[in-house]
Write a structure and sequence with these properties.
Chain lengths: ~130, ~290
């Protein structure tokens, strides 16, 4: 249990850095910069995962933005939260996304994966903040 | 002397109790949660440039065979008469099946938080979740997903996998269009729920913890994977002329899957065990079919 706390603490710090960089560069431009060529796109069409999002879905606030470089779940990473708690995302070879809540199907975008996670959480559960 | 893994529906009341008691004892000792962590730690998706051993990869079957063997060894240290039963989900297809009875797995979760409240793995009966991605410390299920109903895989779905004459094909991941492994694991093309077949679909049908990285928290995980393991044995018998495992050799440095999949004679972390070591289970266990 202690390890879990440490891990999510690290994640929170990393999140703050990303938020700070975004604020400094201005939202729209920043995402273009952050996406960068470092991400492995393997010739997939379109942007990696679509634009950043911040919405309320079934009473839950879901937010997401692309992150630079590796991150916990490797290249092409996104920073996604449900009610402020991080939701781990992984990338499939076909370009779709799996969430930590839902490992046996994938979604076309991080937004769809976040909504799917909310569907599976039901009305009375929250994320523990564990990414992996 | 090989021991026998049996269909869960053939267990007597006393045998069911012995299996459940052995699982509960592993949980109390902390051994059970180590299995949960191992499974979480080895779930690597195929869009990541890392080695995959457990999912979306040829070693999906031998990795889980070894994982089940470790669990079964732990159970048998507690009670030498216990083995992992299997759940034939092509036959026991509803939440009313005896599998979900109070003396074996317990039933589905309640509405709202999907908390399991019957049987030995209910929070109220002492089964506390410690390794999870959600904040609750109770096991969750959503059998059959009533809000958007989903059927368990059928015999035809299994036949779609069993009919493949090749074990696995390049690119050795969840996008492989042919091959027994990917079809049994259950990553299919198409749209809607048709994309999630066989093994994957069972995880979806149970729902709750079984849907996520921490699926091992639900003891039905073992009964599900024992049946997947049985199907691998059956496939080998039905295709004696097919290579029992592929790839035979590691992908070359100029191939996309270089260092991302494990070949027949390479170790599968966290063990030194190779797919070759897991090709048969004669002398260890057999299935009563």
């Amino acid at each position: 249990m202690e390890a879990k706390g440490t891990r999510s603490g690290t994640v929170r710090r990393r999140h703050l850095i990303v938020v700070a960089a975004t604020a400094a560069l201005g939202a729209a431009g920043a995402f273009r910069v952050l996406r960068g060529p470092a991400q492995e796109e393997r010739g997939r069409p379109g942007a990696p995962g679509g634009p950043a999002f911040d919405e309320t879905y079934r009473g839950r606030r879901i937010q997401g933005e692309p992150t630079t470089g590796g991150g916990v779940h490797g290249p092409g990473g996104w920073r996604v939260t449900v009610d402020g708690k991080p939701l781990g995302l992984m990338r499939r070879a076909d370009g779709s996304y799996l969430s930590m809540v839902d490992h046996y199907r994938s979604y076309s975008t991080p937004l769809a994966a976040a909504r799917g996670a909310v569907d599976e959480l039901g009305t009375r559960q929250s994320l523990a903040g564990r990414l992996h | 002397m090989a021991y026998t893994r049996r269909n869960q529906r053939s267990l007597s009341r006393a045998e069911r109790r012995r299996f459940v008691d052995a699982v509960l004892r592993l949980k109390r000792r902390g051994e059970y949660d180590a299995f949960v962590r191992t499974h979480i730690d080895h779930y690597v998706s195929d869009g990541e440039n890392r080695r995959r051993v457990a999912h979306m990869t040829p070693t999906f079957l031998p990795w889980h065979r070894r994982f089940l063997l470790d669990f079964e060894r732990a159970l048998r240290r507690v009670d030498a008469g216990v083995t992992v039963p299997y759940w034939d989900w092509t036959k026991d297809r509803t939440p009313a099946a005896s599998l979900w009875g109070e003396d074996l797995m317990g039933g589905t979760g309640r509405r709202g938080d999907r908390r399991v409240s019957t049987g030995p793995f209910a929070r109220g009966n002492g089964w506390i979740i410690k390794e999870s991605v959600t904040d609750g410390d109770f096991l969750t299920r959503d059998l059959g997903r009533p809000a958007a109903p989903l059927a368990l895989p059928t015999r035809q779905d299994v036949a779609w996998a069993m009919g493949e004459t090749v074990y696995d094909v390049s690119p050795w991941d969840s996008t492989a269009s042919r091959g027994f492994r990917n079809r049994l694991e259950g990553w299919a093309p198409g749209t809607g729920d048709a994309r999630w077949r066989n093994h994957n679909r069972v995880h979806r049908w149970v729902g709750g913890h079984m849907l996520g990285g921490a699926s091992v928290n639900d003891p039905v995980f073992w009964l599900h994977h024992a049946f997947v393991d049985l199907l691998w044995s059956r496939w080998q018998r039905q295709h004696p002329d097919s290579a029992p495992f592929l790839p035979e050799r590691p992908p070359a440095p100029d191939e996309p899957q270089h260092r991302r999949v494990v070949a027949r004679r390479e170790p599968m972390p966290p063990w030194r065990t190779t797919p070759q070591d897991m090709l048969g289970h004669q002398g260890i266990y057999r299935y009563a079919e």
